[in-house]
Amino acid sequence: MKSLLIFDLDGTLLDTVTDLAASTNYALTQCNFPTHELSAYKLFIGNGINNLFERALPKGEKTAENIWEMRKHFLEFYGEHSTELTVPFPGISELLQKLQSAGFKLAVASNKYQQGTETLIQRFFPEIQFTAVFGQREGIPVKPDPTIVHDILAIAMVQPSEVMYIGDSGVDMQTANNAGVDAIGVTWGFRPKAELEAFHPNYLVDKAEEILRIVSL
């Protein structure tokens, strides 16, 4: 039986793609670049916002200067609009409450910038007492580097064998593999099921309630 469950945020706990797309398109418009359809952003998201901007920028325009300018406009807009269309995925709020009541330690490991991660967690899950809520932090490499997981394990004072990592992308499955912890891939997120299967997670689930059964084994 596991004692610590680490969740990815975007595409796992929360459906954030519409707000992220609107904010990135705003930044592109401010920089006089073409925008993208919502569907494109499901493949852009997952490796931190600088990588999001690089993917959204046109070929030949993916410079450090343009990424920095995009970041400025994005943060300005997203800071005001990050919760307008974002919602928890079905069953997630109930799952977290049940896991907390059952005594599991819960944590968040996201590639979203730290302030944005904290804002969304406080807005949508105020009743959950997370052991740690980590986004992208200055000087810390992004997932799939395992540092974020190692930092959470140190705070929770648990061994890798006691941990389950839950995410919706290949990046998440790589993160779990790199950290030496078991993984659950969720199919309701932003990436195709085949991407998850390529990294051989311990489990794949289609509904949030399946996670409670798995982690209680």
Q: Could you please describe the fold and organization of this structure?
A:
- The strands form two sheets. A six-stranded parallel beta sheet has the order 5-4-1-6-7-8, with helices on both faces. Strands 2-3 form a two-stranded antiparallel sheet.
- The chain is an alpha/beta fold and 217 residues long.
- Helix 6 links the parallel strand 4 and strand 5.
- It contains ten helices and eight strands.
- The chain folds into two domains: 142 residues, HAD superfamily/HAD-like (Rossmann fold), CATH 3.40.50.1000; 65 residues, DNA polymerase, domain 1.
- It starts with a strand and ends with a helix.
- The model has no long low-confidence stretch (mean pLDDT 96).
Which descriptors apply to this entry?
217 residues; 6-stranded parallel sheet; alpha/beta; Rossmann fold; DNA polymerase, domain 1; single chain; two-stranded antiparallel ribbon
